């Protein structure tokens, strides 16, 4: 598990291993999502670039009932 330290300006550095695995580059946008008390940073990608992003993912129960309208 990687850990990061929050700077006095409330900034964190994404570990190199994670940046490489998820192809995160300087200037990329990240969505901040809080769900069940857990903070998630999700790279914001153009829809065209998301194909194949999660190979083998079972999307059947991907969303919680609370996420549905």
Supply the key terms:
Pemi-like Protein 1, Chain: D; 2 strands; 69 residues; mainly beta; 17% strand
| Ends apart, CA distance between termini | 34 Å
- SSE order, one letter for each helix or strand: HEE
Number of helices: 1
Query: What is the second-level CATH architecture of the domain at 1-46?
Result: Ribbon
According to CATH, the fold-level topology of the domain at 1-46 is: Pemi-like Protein 1, Chain: D
Biggest sheet, spatial arrangement of strands: 1-2
SS elements, strand count: 2
Compute the average pLDDT: 83
Major beta sheet, specifics?
2 strands, antiparallel
CATH C-level of the domain at 1-46: Mainly Beta
* Apparent shape: globular
Description of the structure:
The protein contains one helix and two strands. It is mainly beta. The protein has a two-stranded antiparallel sheet with strand order 1-2. It is globular and about 40 Å long. The mean pLDDT is 83.
